[in-house]
Write a structure and sequence with these properties.
100 residues; RdDP_mobile_element; alpha+beta; Reverse transcriptase
Amino acid sequence: MPTSQNDFIALNQTEIESALLKLKPLKAPGIDLLPNEVVKEMFFANRVWFTKFFNVLLSNSKFPREWKIAIVTLIPKPNKDYSSASHYRPIAFCPLGENY
């Protein structure tokens, strides 16, 4: 298990493909406006490039600003004590059209 940025373990194509196949096709895109299907197509068009690109982002801890922006709303779970944070489900919304 990595303990610092220097201990980065790269993801392989199989791991990235597995994660991408779990993305739901009809979810709304984030502030980057890239639908899940476009991200999947980018991977399948050139798996080697996509894997290298994604690993460079991870290893350098550098991500597009748009990937870091979200408004989180807490939705209470049914029949729970609302005084505990663990009894809420966080839902992230990406603000479109905002100047961030």
